Amino acid sequence: MKPVKLGLIGVGTVGASTARVLKNNALEIARRAGREIEIVHASRRDINLGMPQGNENIVLTDNPFEVVDNPEVDVVIELIGGYDPALQLVMRAIENGKYVVTANKALVASHGNEIFAAAQDKGVTVAFEAAVAGGIPIIKSIREGLSANRIEWLAGIINGTGNFILTEMRDKGRDFAEVLREAQALGYAEADPTFDVEGIDAAHKLCILSSLAFGIPLQFDSVYTEGISAISTDDVVYAAQLGYRIKHLGIARNGEKGVEMRVHPTLIPEKRLIANVDGVMNAVLIKADKLGPSLYYGPGAGADPTASAVIADIIDVARSITTDPLNRVPHLAFQADQIVDLPIVPITEVHTAYYIRMRVDDIPGVMADITRIMGENQISIEAILQKEPEIGVTQATIIMLTQKIFEKQMNRAIESISALETVHGDIHRIRVETLDAD
Known about the structure:
By secondary structure, the chain is of the alpha/beta class. The protein has three domains: about 5-135 and about 305-340, Rossmann fold; about 140-300, Dihydrodipicolinate Reductase, domain 2 (2-Layer Sandwich); about 350-430, Alpha-Beta Plaits. It has 14 helices and 17 strands. The strands form two sheets. Strands 7, 8, 9, 10, 11, 12, 13, 14, 15, 16 and 17 form an eleven-stranded mixed beta sheet that branches. It has a six-stranded parallel beta sheet with strand order 3-2-1-4-5-6, with helices on both faces. Strand 5 (about 100), helix 5 (about 105-120) and strand 6 (about 125) form a beta-alpha-beta unit. The longest helix is centred in the first third of the chain and has 18 residues, at about 105-120. The protein is elongated. About 45% of the residues are buried.
């Protein structure tokens, strides 16, 4: 059987690692795929940088469209990221009848519906395992390993940069800005860290996981997104005193009212396995009706882990090239005509518990006013901590944990409490999830 010939777009960190692994592990990969796999054409912005050692014989260009238009190329590997020209390249590759492998979560989350529809029409496959959680085979696990189950919910630490920052804040008592600077110096965070620390990167990934889990269209704009830049070291300390850890989670749940998709800081009981996933590592916890809870853990980024996922997709594509398109694993886990547009639950209708932190005057009657407002909004208080003020300071910090309520109740309560003359500054809230099997 003739080799599967690849066109590689992007020879950066992940692209170079992909080329090296394909070369160094060629025999093992061929044994798994049933045929040889080789890169024949590649593009990178600066061709003077060349190809990795051992791959010098590959034709190299600075025009990626030459790769997607090369009639010898069977599969296009897109590793440049972003929307432009990635979308044009992927759509042209599909139009040319080529299979596509991508690690581009932003592209899949924002344009996946049109990409997969085009691929369906042309009878080709677009694979994207590396787009979520790096080397963890989470997409294959949901799409194939859990296909007998109805997935009820999932929760994931799916951005290593945010997890590194929160881990350092907890373990070393450092503040957010200081740890962010270190993350940038170490290469975990970009010069502009917005996508990581404000939850946009995690929202792209959660959008993809939600579609795979529940059989709904990709709809990135419907993901509620909140970052970690407002988390203080005080929050981390108070959470620990209450038996919790703060993690930046992507949460998706299929309930009676529809599908929740939300990314935000979350208090998790410290005994949960996912609460103990630290540093730059990723993890996804899935609750399925027959299997129950299962946890998927591993490196969520890095050259070799991501290349591992890219090459796993290449092998899958190599196996499927001669397969009847109607018998291939569907792009979004469910058959294309079975994707259903379930309602997305607005954040105001989310039902969860809350951690509340506020600064108040240290005088009698303040707590009575706050608890009165909580009661008026049918909010039950689970626990209270009060940090006594230092000598000469007239304000105290109050921490509350509530029982489960709707977000709209919490919004009303916070609005009323903020209006009290005895309450100062912003009232900080963090949602609480137990993530148990119920």
